[in-house]
From TrEMBL:
Source taxonomy: Bacteria, Bacillati, Actinomycetota, Actinomycetes, Pseudonocardiales
Coiled-coil stretches noted in the UniProt entry, renumbered to this chain: none
Name listed for the protein in its UniProt record: P1 family peptidase
Similarity remark: Belongs to the peptidase S58 family.
A Pfam family that the UniProt record links to this protein: Peptidase_S58
Any GO molecular function: aminopeptidase activity
InterPro entries: ArgJ-like_dom_sf (IPR016117), Peptidase_S58_DmpA (IPR005321)
SUPFAM superfamilies registered for this protein in UniProt: DmpA/ArgJ-like (SSF56266)
Amino acid sequence: MLTDIEGVRLGHVTDKQSMTGCTVVVFDTPTVAGVDVRGANPSTKDTDLLRPTSVMPEVHAILLTGGSSFGLEAASGVARHLESIGRGFDVKVARIPIVPAAVIYDLSIGSSSIRPDVQMGVEACMAAKSGPFERGRVGAGTGATVGKLFGIGGASPGGLGTATVSLPGGVKVSAVVVVNAFGDVVCPSSNRILAGTRDNLGNFVNTYECQKRGSVGLSAFDFKNTTIGVVCTNAVLTKENANRVATVAQNGIARVIRPSHTDVDGDAIFAAGPIDGELHCSISLLGTAASEAVELAILDAVGDGDHSEALGRGDQ
């Protein structure tokens, strides 16, 4: 899991009643990050600071959150807590924590008026720990859904998953991913749908094949979907390399979510690693491992859920 990487902590806040929450990844050592935003409908914060042309040298945390754009408020809570413990970019008169963030849309599940806020961000940061953490419908994955060709009532539960890929020399690449996709999650070896759109009888339908036949549901142009995640490694990265790893990591989404990177998704993957250290690895290998970690994390996100039936109209 993501916390297999030394110096990386993760914390959730989960509101099961309102079906929303947030997840924060906190870095205890100097860390550089990059991002690849592949979906056409993203909602993010501070991603421009991660571009190679930005002079910002490091990040202090990354937030994944529900609540659509409203949920970005939780990033202020993360920053507030980090400032209170002396973390942040030193501008002499204050320390400014750099907390990039990305959101999923979960307002159609549970309460649309309750979203992650400043207090949730503080609590998630305070809950951040190394070691095992909850997966499935927790944190930012609480209200996640998968397969929305026919609307939210025909969707399957999504969630949050994690995975680690080990490389030679002690190098590790880990990912945490929140799966809230328009398309179906598919087993890459068998092409079996694991989570996705269901018809009125509760049977899986193939979203892409339905689109090819012209069976497009009413929600096909609703901007209510996204898959977001964070990839971390213990190998030294530059900002340029972090952005490259994030770009290649998106291949993991394409392998198991079909269709992916659509104009109704906001798919975004962050990649982070230490600025200094003893471990080094080729960026080509890191990127390939990152895409595998993302793929496995997506499968993990839906693997623990009950997908025996669609969410149903009562969950809208």
